[in-house]
Amino acid sequence: MSTKAVLNADLSRGKIDKAIYGQFAEHLGRCIYEGLWVGEDSSIPNTNGIRNDVLGALKDLNIPVLRWPGGCFADEYHWKDGVGPKTERKRMVNTHWGGVVENNHFGTHEFMKLCEMLETEPYVNGNVGSGTVQEMADWVEYMTFDGESPMANWRKENGQEEPWKLKYFGVGNENWGCGGNMRPEYYADLYRRYQTYVRNYSGNEIYKIAGGPNIDDYNWTEVLMREAKEHMDGLSLHYYVHPGGFWNKGDAVRFDSDDWHVSMQKAYHIETLIDKHSTIMDKYDPEKSVDLIVDEWGAWYDVEPGTNPGFLFQQNTVRDAVIAGISLNIFNNHNDRIKMANIAQMVNVIQSMVLTEDDKMLLTPTYHVFRMYNVHQDAERVDLDIESDMLEEAGVEYPKVNGSASKQSDGTLNVSLTNADKDSETTIDLNIRGIETSDVTGEFITSGKMNDHNTFDQPDKVKPETLTNFEKTANGLNVTLPPMSVAVLSIK
Ligand code: AHR
């Protein structure tokens, strides 16, 4: 039986903010060091200390925004230790992530250079948990003040004459947990105080993001919106899929059918969270002037056997491609409130785009989904209604098919679809209204087995292929998606 879907190409639902395709890079494991930063003197080919292979791959994703330096690391990071001559930079212990020594060689200047090379918007996350108001105020002054001031002068001494443009600034991270174990009332007051000194200098306008709830902590959202909404542009939300729960997450590769089903159901669950947090936000902010910023999301499993438990290094299978496809469709479809999302994390940590080993690099299945979906960036969302069957397995229930659609400025319609059924293909009877379907092309990603992934020996085991399994009908298209797949169709 086919899945029925109606695509109303002329029913616009607002812009899909390109920042939904954002990334996150923390000082954690081998994300920054080794994964991105190897230093100018490395034998690994690099530009300004950033490895060329990773840079090239990431550039092809059109990354719109990059969040840094954490995560939990952000509330222990003292930015002044990470500027000036590298040999004089203070070393610190990264207590959250493996207890390793952080030499601070990658700091503000290196991050801003990386953003410049990626042509991406920087999103800097400040320290509320263990930092002072003065320290946060100084950082903003250092980065953005044009003219004569103690911090601007110091920046110039350190080699950066012009201030940087900085749009996004986060005031603390997970302040209900690693960012200070605060109660929402206390954090709301601290947020109001700290953000006061996050100033707009020299024509730079900062978009302020308040640390938001963990998963379904609706009381956190309620208190923050009630007490501080007029001082924020965005409120963050963090949600991870861990099939076995937080303490025993499950293996990234060696998983079974039940794990598949639970993972899919947990991927879909983010829609419930978005709906419920949005309902609370609507109560305090019916005009939707505060955005929901999902600045950490992804599938988080146990670390690869034999690797440092504090480094969060995991493989990435076709399951992760489907989880990414489902999540991005959900974000697109909630573009009225969600204006940014940042997958965790960009390199070598949790659900990464690329994995590295010495001088080798591979692209993950998740990378390919991001590349396929980037046609939605800043495109106009159009109405897509899917009547999906529900799959009931392993005590959970979830839709077989999900999707989203948007129209680019040249009129090209892009439809992204997922088939979460790992055993059966599905045919979608897509009724297309408001556009003639003259020229249709497509791409999809799947693999023979749900555990398939890319390795340094077989880097292209899971990769996109051209979609040919569709035919025009009187009303639109019939599209057949293979089991456990993600597809993007372009209709001109
Ligand atoms: O992404 C890994 C960690 O998950 C982040 O540092 C923290 O914010 C979250 O708990």
TrEMBL record:
Residue span, Alpha-L-arabinofuranosidase C-terminal domain: 295-485
Record keywords: Carbohydrate metabolism, Glycosidase, Hydrolase
Pathway(s) annotated for this protein in UniProt: Glycan metabolism
Annotated EC: 3.2.1.55
One Gene Ontology term of the molecular function aspect: alpha-L-arabinofuranosidase activity
Reactions the enzyme catalyzes: Hydrolysis of terminal non-reducing alpha-L-arabinofuranoside residues in alpha-L-arabinosides
GO BP: L-arabinose metabolic process; polysaccharide catabolic process
Subunit structure, interactors included: Homohexamer; trimer of dimers.
Similarity comment: family membership: Belongs to the glycosyl hydrolase 51 family.
Protein name as annotated: non-reducing end alpha-L-arabinofuranosidase
Provenance organism: Pelagirhabdus alkalitolerans
Species lineage: Bacteria, Bacillati, Bacillota, Bacilli, Bacillales
